[in-house]
């Protein structure tokens, strides 16, 4: 009798495994969030959590770990790729080292508005980049946070021109395209993990950095930065990725819940940006940050970055025709 029971349990276990074991039992999945609570990443993650838990009837749960608690954004994508982490929300520029073709979204001055960001990510280009990321990095993009243009902040002086930038130590993500953008403006920026950035700004290891208004506010950078320049060189896109090894093990209904919840969270993120960004901008000004516009409609920044950075990265984005395709999709 005892033998029979054991054999039955073993048979059940192997059937459950073949059918996709994680769904057979209640599961709690882990979601890494690079930013602190309160930003666009957090908004995407909390909306996704609510929708996913509701769609699975509360059987599956998501635990969110904000503020780099599960490691730097580079570490979390690596862990998701290896299947030791379920989900991560991170900036697209921190995916580029693992899947270079998404770099087309970070090429300076390619995306010129939130609407363009939405159009690209939700159209054929977004589909192709999702497939490439799956192929290169073993993670699947299931949602996008639209975070706004990466404005430049620093603690030293108002920066209106390329000349004003000289002498400043600026932190950038470990992203070759962003490094090259600053080099085109004549300075050598400091590549650094996102999780180390606040401390580096606080201790004066670097003078400045760039990120969207909502991120600047969520990370409380106003406590360690004084000046903002409204640069528009990169529109920040922050995908929600799922580990493909984990995704593949799920049955159809859980897969569908992940994809549908991701689409809902993406839609919400766009609206959140529209509703929130200008309020946050005013709030940062009220807290003492001085906001300036680049001189001459940013022309000098644009000319230097596009003429030198674009050609340098044609190869890594998959050829010049990839950029042409993006420009065409944007009606240029
Ligand atoms: C970075 O600057 O590394 C990222 O854009 C930060 C973020 O994920 O918000």
Along the chain, the helix and strand elements come as HEHEHEHHEEHEHEHEHEEHHEHH
Please indicate the percent range of residues in DSSP E strands (runs of 2 or more): 15-25%
Reported for the largest beta sheet, the result is: 6 strands, mixed
Bound small molecules, by name, code or SMILES, are:
D-malate
With strands numbered from the N-terminus, the spatial order across the biggest sheet is 7-6-8-5-9-11
N-C termini distance: 75 Å
CATH secondary-structure class of the largest domain: Alpha Beta
Oligomer kind: single chain
CATH architectural category of the largest domain: 3-Layer(aba) Sandwich
Structural class determined from secondary elements: alpha/beta
Number of strands: 11
Give the low-pLDDT segments: 1-24
The CATH topology of the largest domain is D-Maltodextrin-Binding Protein, domain 2
> Count of helical segments?
13
Question: How would you describe what is shown here?
Answer:
The protein has 332 residues and is of the alpha/beta class. The protein folds into two domains: 26-146 and 236-278, 3-Layer(aba) Sandwich (D-Maltodextrin-Binding Protein, domain 2), CATH 3.40.190; 151-234 and 281-329, 3-Layer(aba) Sandwich (D-Maltodextrin-Binding Protein, domain 2), CATH 3.40.190. It is built from 13 helices and eleven strands. It has helices at 2-24, 40-55, 73-82, 114-122, 124-137, 162-165, 176-184, 197-202, 213-218, 244-249, 252-286, 299-313, 320-329, and strands at 27-33, 60-65, 87-89, 139-149, 151-154, 170-172, 190-191, 208-211, 227-229, 235-243, 290-292. The strands form two sheets. The chain has a six-stranded mixed sheet with strand order 7-6-8-5-9-11. The protein has a five-stranded mixed sheet with strand order 2-1-3-10-4, with helices on both faces. The longest helix is centred in the last third of the chain and has 35 residues, at 252-286. The structure holds D-malate (MLT). D-malate (MLT) is lined by residues 34-35, 73, 90-91, 93-94, 173, 194, 211, 215, 236, 238. The site of D-malate has 13 residues, from β10.
């Amino acid at each position: 009798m005892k033998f029979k029971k054991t054999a039955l349990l073993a048979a059940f276990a192997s059937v459950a495994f073949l059918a996709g074991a994680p769904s057979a039992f209640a599961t709690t999945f882990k979601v890494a969030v690079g930013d602190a609570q309160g930003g666009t990443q957090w908004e995407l993650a909390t909306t996704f959590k609510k929708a996913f838990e509701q769609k699975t009837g509360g059987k599956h749960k998501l635990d969110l770990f904000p503020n780099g608690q599960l490691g730097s954004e580079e570490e979390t994508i690596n862990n998701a790729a290896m299947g030791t982490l379920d989900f991560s929300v991170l900036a697209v520029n921190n995916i580029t080292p693992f899947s270079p073709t998404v770099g087309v979204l970070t090429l300076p001055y390619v995306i010129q508005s939130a609407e363009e960001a939405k159009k690209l990510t939700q159209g054929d280009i977004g589909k192709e980049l999702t497939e490439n990321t799956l192929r290169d990095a073993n993670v699947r993009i299931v949602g996008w946070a639209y975070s706004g243009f990466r404005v430049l902040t620093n603690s030293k002086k108002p920066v209106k021109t390329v000349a004003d930038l000289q002498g400043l130590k600026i932190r950038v993500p470990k992203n070759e395209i962003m490094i090259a953008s600053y080099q085109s403006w004549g300075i050598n920026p400091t590549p650094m993990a996102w999780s180390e950035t606040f401390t580096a700004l606080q201790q004066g290891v670097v003078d400045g950095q760039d990120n969207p208004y909502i991120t600047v506010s969520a990370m409380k950078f106003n406590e360690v930065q004084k000046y903002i320049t409204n640069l528009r060189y990169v529109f920040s896109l922050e995908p929600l990725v799922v580990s493909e090894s984990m995704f593949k093990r799920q049955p159809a209904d859980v897969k569908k819940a992940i994809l549908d919840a991701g689409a809902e969270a993406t839609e919400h993120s766009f609206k959140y940006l529209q509703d929130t960004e200008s309020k946050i901008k005013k709030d940062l000004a009220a807290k003492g940050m001085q906001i300036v516009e680049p001189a001459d409609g940013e022309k000098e920044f644009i000319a230097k970055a596009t003429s030198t950075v674009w050609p340098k990265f044609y190869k890594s984005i998959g050829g010049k025709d990839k950029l042409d395709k993006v420009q065409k999709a944007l009606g240029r």
